[in-house]
Amino acid sequence: MRLRFEAIRAAGRVLEAKNRSNNLSRVNFLVLIAVFFYTFAFSLDNAISGVSPEYKEAAQKRQAEIARQMFCSEKAGKEKVMKRDLASFIVGCMEAIEKAEQAIKKQLESR
Fold this sequence. Notes:
Layout (H helix, E strand, L loop, with lengths): L1 H38 L4 H4 L8 H23 L4 H28 L1
Helix pairs in contact: 3-4
């Protein structure tokens, strides 16, 4: 009887080890995806390098707008804004950033 109990316990340890290895492989896979995502993520400098000189200014403005929108989306996520309020939060955040940028430009021009 004792041997049988020990065999069941050993089999349970083997199954636990397999579950741990599966969980570790899943975690490793997720970490690998995160590393590759950030490696090949959208870069502001590289995105406008292939743009014609006449469209470069418009591309820079668009990239700045996208960066503001991404910042505000991340801020909304950190503040746990509800989905129904997400659009108005992002628009308000982008307007606040734009006003701050204009104020900084005015201060720089006055110097």
